[in-house]
Amino acid sequence: MRKYIVAGNWKMNTTVAEGVELAKAVAAKAQDLPANVQLVVAPPFTHLVSVAEALKGSKVALSAQNCADHEKGAYTGEVAVNMLVDAGCQYTILGHSERRQYYGETDEKLVVKTKLALAAGLKVILCVGENLDEREAGKHFDVVTEQTKAVLYELSAEELKSIVVAYEPVWAIGTGKTATAAQAEEIHACIRTVIAEKFGLEAADDMTILYGGSCKPSNAKELFAEKDIDGGLIGGAALKADDFIAIAASF
Ligand code: PGA
Hints:
It is built from 12 helices and 8 strands. By secondary structure, it is α/β, with parallel strands linked by helices. It has one domain (4-248): TIM Barrel. It has an 8-stranded parallel beta barrel, surrounded by 7 helices. Bound molecules: 2-phosphoglycolic acid. 2-phosphoglycolic acid (PGA) is lined by residues 9, 168, 173-174, 212-215, 233-237.
C-alpha cells in the first residue's frame, strides 16, 4: 500500500526554541489530518533531541537532513546514522540538491550513506532532480533516471521498502517557480517505471514519490491530485505550521 507523506525540510533555519515551537504547532494540528497522511519534519541536527521530545505521542515523524558516510570515528563535524537513531529520528533526507551542489555529494557517496541509514533502521528520503540547464537541454528524464538508478539499483528489494523518493527540480527550489502538475507527473511516472524495471510493478506501485520545489498551500492540491505524486518535500512553506498543515490537508 502506497503511503502519502508530507515532509518539512527546515534546512538551516530556526533556533532550537523556534524549532520546538514549530514542531509543537505542527503536532497539535496533525491530529485532524487523514490517517493515511504521514507528516515528517527535518530540523537541523542541533534541534533533533528537543524536537523529538516535542513530537512525543504525536503522529509526526522526525527526520535528519543528512548523515555521515561512515559509521563512527575520526570524521570531524559529521553525524553518524546511529546518532540520528539515538536522537529520535525515523528518517533522513539524502541527496538534496543543495548537498549535491554545494557539498560535492556524489551518487557513490549516496549509495554508502543510504545503505548505512537503512542498516541503522532509518527510512531514507532520497532526492533527485535536474537543474535548469539540464531541463532546457531536454535532459531532465535522463538526469532523473540516472540519479534514481545510481542509488536504488544498488539496493535489495527489502531495502527498497524503506525508501521514499523526492523529485525536486532544482530550478523550482526556493524560487517560487513550481513545476506544473503535468511536468511533475511525467517525471514521477518515469521514476516509477525505472523502479518497476528492476524491482517489478508491485514494488514500483508501493513507492512513495514526493514532489518538492516551491510547493505551497495554493498549488499542493493540484500537484497531489496527480496519480504518481504521493505528497511533498516542503522547504520554505514548512517553516509556518499553518502552511505546512494546509499542504498536508490538500489530499
Ligand atoms: P522549497 O524547498 O519548498 O523552499 O522550494 C524545497 C526543498 O528544497 O526541499
